[in-house]
Amino acid sequence: MNGRLTTLALTGAGAAAALAGRAVARRRAAHGTRSDHWLAVTVARPLEDVEGARALPEPLERLSGQVDLRFRAAPGDRGTEVLGRPRGDAVSREDLRVALRKAKSLLETGTVVQPDARPSTHPGPAGKVLQFVVRKSKGEGRL
Fold first, then answer.
1. Poorest-pLDDT segment among 26-30, 49-53, 122-126
2. CA 103, 115, 131, 97: dihedral to nearest 10 degrees?
3. What is the CATH number of the domain that holds 53?
4. Domain of life, per the record (predicted)?
5. Residue-range definition of the domain harbouring residue 43
6. This prediction's pTM
7. Residue 135 falls within a domain, yes or no?
């Protein structure tokens, strides 16, 4: 009996998360796109190191010509802010967000840091909900 209640509760939680995601998408559609807003990451490196690099990190280099990029000192001497926004519809905001995250990792560590293991390989409802949340978290928006 406890297993059924747990499954029912987790299925309900997954359904609630999906409905909440749809509500957020409807609100965004009603308020228009945020294509004019800049996406930003803070890199823990001085502005001179980031701007003076011979080339952009590969994820951003792939998008060159399709995005606008800016570099500025981060507040409080915390490194460099790398800002970007897509030009037109050639690149999605989600693709740019992922490229900025990867570029940050490359600039700070020299490699794109990956998690050691998948968060869940459980085949049940809880594992499916967790996999959905992890997939969604790599893109744009809030969970």
1. 26-30
2. -10
3. 3.30.70
4. Bacteria
5. 21-112
6. 0.64
7. no
